């Protein structure tokens, strides 16, 4: 195998708003109970963004922590990609706000909108720059303020979501072209626009002129999630040239504990290998994978050199998976 450039994750960081909302708190404002939520979703609490803050504030803090973990400074950054569906403003991009707030030099900055799949899409997009030597230090961020999209009279959806941000620093490193290389080894990205009605927001700039509220057909989303995600996971592993049995850690999008278990069971993945943060964070959309990655590293489970498989599915429908050796 000849040498080639790999996109290597050199630092990971995360940020969660201080305000924690428990299921008991929600039971005071909507017809639900802690038992009902836990039984159906596995969620026990979620974080909520503070009044007066925007998602760029969450993204900036997560990015700052990722840079510190990588031993880099904002002056090193030449590319920022933010996966988000809850931007501060219709424009400019959250990525440009992060660039300004961090004090990064002029470079490339833009957002990716693939809802819950946003981080996987953003990471694969960054790979197109880093692995071609077009970026020396990239920030890839998943950041969301999903509670701002909730209809608080809809108990089927408002209990599912939370706010937060996770970030990784991606830098080019020389590899040998084998599966032992550090870095991003394979991807599988998918979308099916015919399934829009299963998960969407009922407002927008060019239609209603309003932000709108999240609408979801939960049972249909669940059914498509288990089947579609499983296919993408197998495809990403094949693209990377690794067997699922070689994967050390499976980091799924944290939507619902039952979906996590369903995918693991379908693929024959030991649940002990699954990083789950859904009980503490709820569904943070594009932020959920980097938040879970950060948690796994922080508590010592995920170690350098281990093989990680990440996957997500979100509105669109979009879904995808990627293989990373840390």
Word description of this protein:
By secondary structure, the chain is of the alpha/beta class. The protein has helices spanning 23-27, 34-41, 55-70, 94-102, 118-130, 218-240, 257-267, 278-281, 288-298; strands at 4-15, 19-22, 45-48, 79-83, 108-112, 138-145, 163-175, 183-191, 199-201, 214-216, 249-252, 307-314, 318-325. The strands form 4 sheets. Strands 1-7-6-4-5 form a 5-stranded mixed β-sheet, with helices on both faces. Strands 8-13-12-11 form a 4-stranded mixed β-sheet. It has a two-stranded antiparallel sheet with strand order 2-3. Strand 12 and strand 13 form a beta hairpin. The longest helix is centred in the last third of the chain and has 23 residues, at 218-240. The model has no long low-confidence stretch (mean pLDDT 97).
> Portion of residues in helices?
25-40%
Strand content: 25-35%
Number of helical runs? 9
Structural class: alpha/beta
The rough form would be described as globular
What is the residue-averaged pLDDT?
97
CATH topology label of the largest domain? Peroxisomal Thiolase, Chain A, domain 1
Q: Which regions contain 5 or more consecutive residues with pLDDT less than 50? A: none
Number of domains: 2
Query: What is the second-level CATH architecture of the largest domain?
Result: 3-Layer(aba) Sandwich
Query: Could you give a short account of the major beta sheet?
Result: 5 strands, mixed
CATH first level of the largest domain: which class? Alpha Beta
How would you write the strand order of the largest sheet?
1-7-6-4-5
At the fourth level of CATH, the homologous superfamily of the largest domain is Thiolase/Chalcone synthase
Over the alpha carbons, how many angstroms does the gyration radius reach? 18 Å
Total beta strands: 13
Q: What's the end-to-end separation, in Å? A: 21 Å
Strand/helix succession: EEHHEHEHEHEEEEEHEHHHEE
